[in-house]
Amino acid sequence: EEASLLAGGSLTVGGLVIRPHCPPTRSGKTVVFLTLEDEHGLIDVTIFENIYRKYAKVIFNEPLLLVTGEISRRDPNERASIIAARIRGLS
Fold first, then answer.
1. pTM of the model
2. Domain that holds residue 85
């Protein structure tokens, strides 16, 4: 199933938020990393500063999220991740 996810394509996934964290960056810009878990497994989500500013309250206050974004994958054998474009709470 995951093998069919092409880098650059769009994907919407919903799931339980696991491990949201906001590490310091050299540039000083905010980047949030989190993992979503659903009945199919786990997917990593990257949220850059412009999206974080729009959805900060939802990201850290909602246990269930629906995330739409671009599929990111450097290598066909690598697990796909999402670069978030839109986020909404599901609770």
1. 0.87
2. 2-89
